[in-house]
Amino acid sequence: MTAKRLIIAALALAVLVSCQGKVKNYRINVVKEYPHDTSSYTQGLFWHNGQLYESTGQLGESTMRIVDLETGNALRRLNFEAKYFAEGSVILDGELFILTWTNKVAFIYDAATLEYKQTYSYPREGWGLTTDGKSLIASDGSANLYFMDNRFQVQKTVKVTLDGRPVRLLNELEWIDGKIWANVYTTDSIMIINPKTGEVEGTVNCSGLLDRSLRTPRTDVLNGIAHNPADGKIYLTGKYWPKMFEIELKETK
Hints:
Largest sheet: 8 strands, mixed
CATH superfamily: TolB, C-terminal domain
CATH architecture: 6 Propeller
Distance between the termini: 32 Å
CATH topology: Neuraminidase
Structural class: mainly beta
Helix content: under 10%
Radius of gyration: 19 Å
């Protein structure tokens, strides 16, 4: 190989290493375990004003709940008609927003009373939903994140990439300290995303979070990220899981 080619190869390798170095990798440390209702096919999970909210899916099982963290029981609960498959949920400016998977509608409720307000047409599959305090931010199972106003009109679309490659199957979302955390459906991975560029800045390996001894044939995938802004604590769970976990991140090399 010529000296020129060696220099070019070295520069290319340096750029590659530099790009890879931008993405931080984390494992999780479990701080505390809590019970989780195994009838909950968890879709959306978030804290608001000291209360834990959870939306659950499946036809005939879809609900919106305010959950007692210590017991896993629902303090208040909305049941959806059997034809609706509820998905992500979040509160913004006093209103509770709930997506549906393939029903092509989204619901708005009063956040304080849980009283129904309105149904809106929704043009995409509904998956995850979160907010930066100004916009609704939604996923649809693709690599795209949709920033919308409070009546579901798209303001901008951001494509999520990891080392330049699209990250698909983005599911449940959570806004944490200026970043978007996203479950990647069917995996034990969480992406930490820059909301302006869509670039993945961190990956969280959650493998082994739920012990095999606690799994049953019904136990489904990791899904559910909740950040309590009051104390900064982060919680994870999954679909039909018997546990919810308070976790901390530990960076790995």
